[in-house]
Amino acid sequence: MNYQEFNQFCGALLATTYVMQWGNSHVWKVGGKVFAIGGWSKDKQPAFTFKTSEQNYHFLCERPGYIPAPYFASRGMKWIQQVDSQGRNNEELEYYLKASYGLVIQGLSKAKQKSLGLQQSVGN
Length: 124
What we know:
- By secondary structure, the protein is α+β, with helices and mostly antiparallel strands.
- Helices cover 33% and strands 23% of the residues.
- Strand 1 and strand 2 form a beta hairpin.
- The radius of gyration is 14 Å and the shape is globular.
């Protein structure tokens, strides 16, 4: 996946917003909360950062091409960065991005979810 595909995928999710920040990273939010970041690669290759469940965090930390996300993981947050997408299909990353989106929605208040039209999106 490249950054254009990443932005297209994240932008298609309901009630998302985009901002470029943190060193020209592509930052995607839902309800004002970050769920995905494109950028921060040390070797100029695409890198994608996302929130995970605790189970997926431990699973992905053991897989080649994934690392605990810089900054987030050092603060005890369960965020992963995909640093090597070669040989992987986009569906895998899309799965984790959508899961991150769902986790962030679940953390929003019910009133915020309702105001954004997201109550049906939780868990999907």
